[in-house]
Design brief:
single chain, DNA polymerase, domain 1, Dna Ligase, domain 1, 5-stranded mixed β-sheet
């Protein structure tokens, strides 16, 4: 069984970007926060702050007690995305990227002689040097090399910051025994409690479980088989996303074939799609919108979204798309449509680190509950005012509508 993957994990990414951009922050404890308030929580911490006990999720007031002199920096979402793109390009110059896992993680597949430890080491060191050279000398990454993506990620977590660790297949499973079961991605506090209920508290006990045993813990035969082979170094294919898109379209009645009418119906469609996304418990990473005209060319644009299942993020993205200067302003709209894509189920989605994003998601779920209890449109965003009864629910061959919908 060969070494197949090299996993790159940027160290204290958000905080390191801030220290890269502002040399005055280098060597100092830094916390990245969503708002300047003691009641908010840290969404990232530099290693200087981590050594004092500050972690992601630590309340700001507590971080200041743990680490006097800590510098709280307001999060800059756009900048982190911009630097992420530079890092992807830097890594791509050293090795083909197989998967971008998140804003600060990616995996490269090793082929041929690259699977030899010496060659994989050379690639890893080249990646580290290229990131420092072309992106920033204060940005470091930990790299893990292993027989599959999961174990390569586990290896990368074993030495931080700026580490390089191998999990050699011939040393499995013994080289995993010192780890806690929560060191494996996918085993968080809730899953840890479930494992404990089955008497599994150590990695050695975890490795001793059969497929049937793992299936019982995961309450899924598919997941049980998947984990059994992943833990043994097999390169198991990703579980495909069952649902690809959530979409809605609507032919406009004559009275709504106007600039304001088409926009209002589009907003209504976005509300419906976001509510459906939550009802099937998926998260979206992209959105597309389109307008067909009676007397002009079809207009269609798209954009990426932060992985979300709320209503507000798609609405904000739509507002920017609608301002596209290429969109016809004087043609007569006939049909509008929108689609949410790049879907992932909640079981495999990584929730946002930003507190305000989590609050918006919670708010959207609360709105759904209120609308189900008291009738559709009882609570809605102001942008849908006047369009509540447009775009009524259609029954598609591939979907049975919710009999008590939140927004339909």
């Amino acid at each position: 069984m060969p070494l197949r993957y090299l996993f790159i994990d940027m160290n204290a990414y958000f905080a390191s970007v801030e220290q890269q951009d502002d040399p005055r922050l280098r060597g100092r404890p830094v916390a990245v926060v969503p708002v300047d308030a003691n009641t908010s929580s840290c969404i990232a911490a530099s290693y200087e702050a981590k050594r004092k006990g500050v972690r992601t999720g630590t309340p700001v007031w507590q971080a200041k007690l743990l680490c006097p002199g800590i510098v709280c920096v307001h999060a800059r979402h756009e900048r982190y995305v911009q630097v992420h793109k530079l890092i992807v390009k830097a890594v791509g110059r050293c090795a083909p990227i197989d998967k971008v896992m998140s804003i600060d993680e990616m995996a490269c597949k090793l082929l041929g002689t690259e699977r030899r430890a010496a060659d994989a080491t050379a690639i890893a060191l080249k990646i580290k040097a290229e990131i420092k050279r072309s992106v920033g000398d204060y940005l470091t990454c930990s790299i893990g090399v292993g027989p599959n993506v999961m174990l390569a990620k586990v290896a990368g977590d074993m030495m931080k910051p700026d580490g390089l660790t191998f999990l050699h297949p011939e040393e499995l499973p013994g080289n995993l025994y010192p780890l806690k079961i929560t060191d494996f991605p996918g085993i968080g506090p809730r899953m840890e409690k479930r494992f404990h209920r089955y008497g599994v508290t150590t990695t050695q006990q975890l490795m001793g479980l059969t497929v049937a045993g793992l299936s019982r813990v995961w309450e899924s035969k598919v997941m049980g088989e998947r984990w059994f082979y992943l833990l043994r170094g097999e390169d198991v294919p990703d579980i495909p996303t069952k649902r690809r898109t959530v979409s809605h379209s609507h032919v406009l009645p004559p009275e709504l074939r106007t600039e304001d009418g088409s926009r209002g119906v589009m907003v209504r469609l976005i509300h419906k799609a976001a509510a459906r996304l939550r009802s099937i418990d998926y998260w979206a990473g992209a959105m597309g919108v389109s307008v067909s005209y009676l007397d002009g060319p079809r207009w269609s644009v798209g954009t990426h979204l932060p992985k979300c299942q709320d209503t507000l993020n798609p609405l904000l993205a739509f507002g920017k798309l609608w301002d596209d200067p290429a969109r016809p302003r004087h043609a007569t709209p006939l049909k509008v449509g929108m689609v949410l894509s790049e879907l992932v189920p909640s079981a495999t989605a990584t929730p946002s680190l930003f507190e305000q994003d989590r609050q918006v998601t919670t708010l959207s779920h609360v709105m759904d509950k209120i609308n189900r209890a008291f009738g559709k449109h009882s609570v809605r965003f102001g942008a849908v005012m006047g369009s509540e009864d447009t775009a009524p629910t259609r029954i598609a061959f591939t979907r049975i509508p919710d009999p008590n919908p939140a927004h339909d």
